[in-house]
Design brief:
With 119 residues, this protein is mainly alpha-helical. The chain has helices at residues 4-25, 33-36, 57-113, and strands at residues 45-46, 49-50.
Length: 119
């Protein structure tokens, strides 16, 4: 019988591998980051560049503030996801080490108990 901790490790490993395999199988066009987050298009923005012709100083300042806020949000998101990635990688390494230790324990038990004397 498996312990609750061993079942948990197996579930996590299964989830990790199925997620990894599903990620590899995906194909097709990727959505841009801005379209997936529901960002609104900016007037006068073609190909990533902002056309400032015809904009007043106040409009340019507003655009600058929006761009600065977007940058701060992107940095915060990047930092958050890097921390999450590091946590998952660390958990993966620990789980892998525990699995190897358990397998070694099972091998040791099988070797020690298999040659019982009969005679």
């Amino acid at each position: 019988t498996r312990t609750a901790k061993a079942r948990h490790i197996c579930c996590v490993l299964c989830f990790f591998f199925t997620a990894k395999m599903a990620k590899k199988k995906k194909s097709g066009k990727k959505k841009s980051a801005s379209s997936s987050r529901g960002a609104t298009p900016v007037a006068g923005m073609e190909g990533g560049a902002i056309n400032t012709e015809g904009m007043t100083k106040d409009q340019m300042e507003e655009q600058w503030k929006r761009t600065k806020d977007d940058l701060e949000n992107e940095r915060a998101d990047r930092n958050y996801f890097q921390l999450e990635r590091d946590k998952i990688a660390q958990f993966w390494e620990i789980s892998k080490k525990q699995l190897e230790e358990r397998r070694a324990g099972v091998r040791d038990k099988e070797r020690g108990g298999g040659g019982g004397g009969g005679g």
